[in-house]
Amino acid sequence: ILPDFSVEVSSAKKDSLKVVYSKLYQNLGRVRINGKFVKIGVVFQPLGIQHFIKEVYSEVFSKPINFTNPFGLKFNEVLDQVFLTSIISEKANLLDKFFQQQCLGFEEERIIGAVNKIIESKGMISVSALARDLDIHRKTLLRLFQKHLDCSVEEYRKLVRFRFALEKIQQQNNINLTTVSAEHYYDQSDFIKQFKKLTQLSPKKFMAAVSKLGDEDTFWNFYS
Q1: What are the pLDDT digits (tens) for 165-220?
Q2: Which domains are seen in the chain, by residue range?
Q3: What CA–CA distance (Å, rounded) separates 201 from 192?
Q4: Residues facing 34 on adjacent strands
Q5: How far is Cα 138 from Cα 129, in angstroms, rounded to an integer?
Q6: If you ran DSSP here, which 8-state letter would residue 189 be given?
Q7: Which residue in 40, 146, 163, 127 sits closest to 91, CA to CA?
Q8: What are phi and psi of 31, to 5 degrees?
Q9: pTM, whole model, 2 decimals?
Q10: In angstroms, rounded to a whole number, what is the distance separating the alpha carbons of residues 217 and 69?
Q11: Helix, strand or coil for residue 179?
Q12: N or C: the chain end with fewer CB closer than 10 Å?
């Protein structure tokens, strides 16, 4: 992990397998890749990975980018099979079967309810209103977010709001910042400020520079 919140990876002299988990975070991630790689991405829905680990999320994944395998040696065995086949549907079936067997469930209803309400409001609900709607003390709510998502309620709320704004921009042929900012932010100036804080680019420059691969809810800017 480099000082400027980036990662540098180089291919090994012989084939090797590495499991990397990237958390939800507000910084722009940079990856410097040297060599050849085959990457398979598993994208978890909010509170998704919590269904597959026994330990507390914030303890298992203590860093923004974690080089750890929380699923045990059996996961490596499955991944060996996944990489042996070139058929995408077979790769997906192998992973689906593994996670079905691995599923432990996640029953902290308070954090589930909080995340659902934030998403339903598109990130616009306040922390106070959220605590009131769930009939939960504000401090308890903050503690649950730190424990199970390793972020504050406000950080999560801002990211959800940003994601919905980004989705709105994607749907438009011509980016109408006035419409997007009116729906998700106080005004256009606030929207552009928050957008630049998260991506280091203006909305128009960001959408021109990045690519979205497949159905992954992740945007990439490839450059050499």
Answers
A1: 777 777 766 667 777 777 777 777 887 887 787 777 777 777 776 666 555 566 66
A2: 6-102 (no CATH), 109-215 (1.10.10.60)
A3: 9
A4: 10
A5: 10
A6: H
A7: 40
A8: -125, 125
A9: 0.79
A10: 22
A11: helix
A12: C
